[in-house]
Specification:
224 residues; alpha/beta; 5-stranded parallel beta sheet; two-stranded antiparallel ribbon; Rossmann fold
Length: 224
């Protein structure tokens, strides 16, 4: 998938470097991450606090890796990751989390992210994770990804699972196959904006809303 011209040019201006975009709702966290990452020789090309702004700016900035908070004031990092990777499949995302369990790992796979990093992790571990993600390497084991996708596929096929509408089950089944929002749009013949709305609803119903409740669906209104 081709990059917007300004994003492609941004990457060409800094060959060999790793360009990072930071998304977190807390200014002090963003500042701390920026100072640390720049001290590790990584180039921070932007930062913001909202899902809507992140969805517009990450690709424009020519980022190689976006480090995303899970819950955001107007949505989730999951939605941001799925959107920007539909625009630029070479762009990688890392999700920040306070802990790791099966549900968290499923949310990371659903997002299409390269992996997750614990909030308390700093030092070489974080810098290494970003550099590995920038090469296209998945920080999730194949077993983790396969198990999560099987869970999505089984949930989509189980009529007793959740209060899911028919279109939501179709989208969830395709998420289980690893498809992006744009690929799901093409497969189902739906507008991409409609697919994002269905994904937002799924996040709430599957419990991946990150505590943002009904706000999970709002960023889709602001996306192109």
């Amino acid at each position: 998938m081709g990059l917007p011209l300004d994003a492609a040019a941004a990457r060409e201006r800094a060959p060999g470097s790793v360009r990072v975009f930071v998304v977190d709702s807390h200014e002090l966290v963003r500042e701390g991450l920026r100072d640390f990452l720049e001290g590790e020789g990584l180039e921070v090309v932007g930062e913001c606090w909202s899902a809507a702004e992140a969805s517009r700016r990450i690709v424009e900035a020519g980022a190689d890796v976006a480090v995303l908070d899970g819950p955001l004031p107007d949505g989730t990092g999951i939605e941001v990751c799925r959107y920007v990777r539909s625009v630029d499949s070479d762009l990688q995302c890392l999700m920040m989390t306070s802990y790791v369990d099966d549900e968290v790992l499923r949310s990371v796979v659903l997002a299409g992210a390269a992996g997750c990093v614990l909030r308390q992790v700093r030092g070489l571990h974080l810098a290494e994770a970003i550099r590995r993600a920038a090469t296209g390497e998945s920080l999730l084991g194949t077993e983790v990804v396969d198990r999560a996708r099987a869970w999505f596929a089984n949930a989509a096929a189980d009529p007793g699972f959740g209060d899911l509408a028919g279109a939501e089950r179709e989208v969830l089944a395709l998420i289980g196959k690893g498809l992006s929002d744009r690929q799901i749009s093409e497969a189902l013949g739906l507008a991409e904006t409609r697919v994002r709305e269905l994904v937002s609803t799924l996040l709430v119903k599957l419990g991946f809303g990150g505590g943002s409740g009904p706000a999970v669906g709002r960023p889709t209104d602001a996306l192109p």
